[in-house]
UniProtKB/TrEMBL annotation:
One of its GO terms (biological process) is cell wall organization. Keywords: Cell wall biogenesis/degradation, Lyase. The gene is rlpA. Gene3D superfamilies: RlpA-like domain. Residues 67-159 form the RlpA-like protein double-psi beta-barrel domain. Lytic transglycosylase with a strong preference for naked glycan strands that lack stem peptides. This is Endolytic peptidoglycan transglycosylase RlpA.
Length: 197
């Protein structure tokens, strides 16, 4: 009883009526321009154009992130295509796309309705949708399945970045990355050992 009350208080800022949520994931992007490096304070800027519009986005310089919004997922259309970080996207890996967090990053994604959570590696950019949609993250199909939102297509979530783990992952990334694939040992180290379901 106390746990349920505590959980509801923590996630109170994430409440949104389910009927206000979109029902289907949008295409992420059709045209990705190579990031343009800005000064160290501002991170870098990139431009996306898709059926939802034209987006100019500046990335974060830091890993601090704690936000609530809608999670969607992307699958077949982007399977085996290169991600923003340069590795090949496998829709069954525990990965995600985020518009501004430095890549790679380790994110905790929690469902607001149940508190169920997963850990994913952020390796790509997205989602890119019209203002008002409040989509904060695109999950891989595998991650969406584990979180229990594959059938619905969307879920209301809280997204938190694990700062220390992300900083450590970033230092190790180039040492372990091979053949354009996500290093299995890093996924095991930063994601699989933390997953609770």
């Amino acid at each position: 009883m106390l746990y349920a009350l505590f959980l509801s208080l923590i996630l109170s800022g994430c409440i949104q009526k389910w009927q206000d949520m979109p029902r289907k994931p949008f295409s992420r992007y059709e045209n990705f321009r190579k990031p343009v490096q800005l000064n160290k304070k501002d991170g870098y800027q990139y431009t996306i154009k898709n059926s939802q519009g034209h987006f100019n986005i500046t990335s974060q310089k830091h890993y601090h992130l704690d936000e609530c919004g809608i999670a969607s997922y992307y699958g077949d259309k982007f399977h085996n295509r290169k991600t923003a970080i340069g590795v090949i996207y496998n829709q069954w890996d525990m990965t995600s796309a985020h518009p501004t967090i430095p890549l790679p990053a380790v994110l905790k994604v929690s469902r607001v309705d149940s508190g169920k959570h997963i850990y994913v590696l952020a390796i790509d950019r997205g989602p890119f949708v019209k203002k008002g949609e409040n989509r904060v993250i695109d999950l891989s199909r595998g991650a969406a399945k584990v979180l229990g939102m594959e059938k619905q297509g969307v879920a209301h979530v809280r997204v938190q970045c694990l700062v220390r783990a992300s900083e450590k992952l970033r230092k190790e990334w180039h040492t372990h990355k091979k053949d354009g694939k996500i290093p299995y040992n890093l996924v095991s180290k930063y994601v699989r050992k933390n997953i609770l379901w």
